[in-house]
Amino acid sequence: MHPPRLLFAPVVLLAIASPASSQDISLAPHRAVYEMGLHRSGGPGSVVAVSGRLVMEFTDTCDGYTLNQRIRTEMTNSDGDTVASDFTISSWERRDGRRFRFALKHDLTGEETEEHVGNAEIVPGKPGKAVLSKPEPSTVNLPAGIVFPTEHLVRLIRAAREGRSHLSTRIFDGSGEDGLFETGAHIGRELADDSAGSELLKPLKGVRSWPVRIAYFPLPEGAETPRYEVQFRMYDNGIGGDLILDYHDFAMKGTMTLLELLPQPKC
After folding, report:
1. Strand partners, 91
2. Fewest beta carbons within 10 Å, which of 43, 90, 153, 164?
3. Of 224, 236, 232, 222, which is closest to residue 254 (Cα–Cα)?
4. How far apart are the first and last CA of the chain?
5. Are 52 and 72 spatial neighbours (Cβ–Cβ below 8 Å)?
6. What is the C-alpha separation between 210 and 101, in angstroms, rounded?
7. pLDDT (0 to 100) of residue 13
8. Which pLDDT does position 23 carry in this prediction?
9. Omega of the bond prior to 220 within 30 degrees of 0, cis?
10. Which among 58, 173, 50 has a CA at the least distance from the CA of 106?
């Protein structure tokens, strides 16, 4: 039972190519909490119970954006075995999408901790490079056209505004050589505002939103089947609503239980 990483492209929860790429997109600093549970079981040997919580904090630092995210879950399979997973992300991405600092850590019951710490830089139209200090000093070559998670979110919002139904993007999420993905996103029709009468969704009153499903294919394998998929309600200000994390043999659902808008910085 190895749940893949979640960069809520918030991230939904969550999760930028030219210097002016984000000027027309305003991402809302916020804190959100999602209660995790089982959405679908894959049958014998698969996960049959899930409990846990995802906490995300996204802030604007004037020169860029920071993301602090933690997802803790306990998963039980049909044999009665339970695994506890604790995955954390702390990152900063420059506003123009060209630089990315990251620290990712994954603790799994009974197994060695996975940890990736480093920074990456890209130049539009040219190959980039990520330099890692953990788990050991190393370099990851980033192919031309790669983007980082917040830039990916900005591009998704722009595509939704333009009425596009599909978006293909190559991204690097910071997890070493395994952090390179070809993503395919399907964007549905704009959803009706459902904030009326909801104290939880009050901060999202009048904010446009779309259903989004993103498949993550590992690079450079050229796999025909995605490693995992993320489905969520994407708001025009970058906030992600309820989400589904689909790992093929099982899927988890995250239900938003808290949403707090944070102050915008005085830049």
Report:
1. 67, 102
2. 43
3. 232
4. 44
5. yes
6. 29
7. 35
8. 53
9. yes
10. 173
Dihedrals phi, psi of 226, to nearest 5 degrees: -65, 150
19 CB contacts (<8 Å, ≥6 apart)? 96, 98
Rounded Cα gap, residues 67 and 192, in angstroms = 28
Which residue is it, tokens 């505002």?
193
Residues 6+ apart with CB under 8 A from 119: 99, 100, 101, 102, 130, 131
- Tell me the helices (H) and strands (E) count for the chain, helix number first: 1, 15
Structure tokens belonging to residue 183: 């993503």
Residue given tokens 């480093």 in the structure block: 118
State which residues of the chain have pLDDT below 50: 1-22
C-alpha angle 62-66-67 in degrees, rounded to nearest 5: 155
SS (H, E, C) 122-188: EECCEEEEEEEEECCCEEEEECCCEECHHHHHHHHHHHHHCCCCEEEEEEECCCHHHHEEEEEEEEC
- The type of residue at 243 is L
For 83, 247, 258, the CA distances from 251, given in Å and listed in that order, are 15, 6, 22
Question: What is the distance between the alpha carbons of residues 236 and 25, in angstroms, rounded to a whole number?
Answer: 8
Residues in the chain: 267
Name every residue whose Cβ is closer than 8 Å to that of residue 220 and which is 6 or more positions away in sequence.
143, 180
Find the farthest-apart pair of alpha carbons in the chain and give their distance in angstroms, rounded: 54
Looking at residue 165, what is its pLDDT? 98
Place of tokens 């000093």: 137
Residue type, 264: Q
Neighbours of 15 (CB within 10 A): 28
Tokens found for residue 129: 């490079």
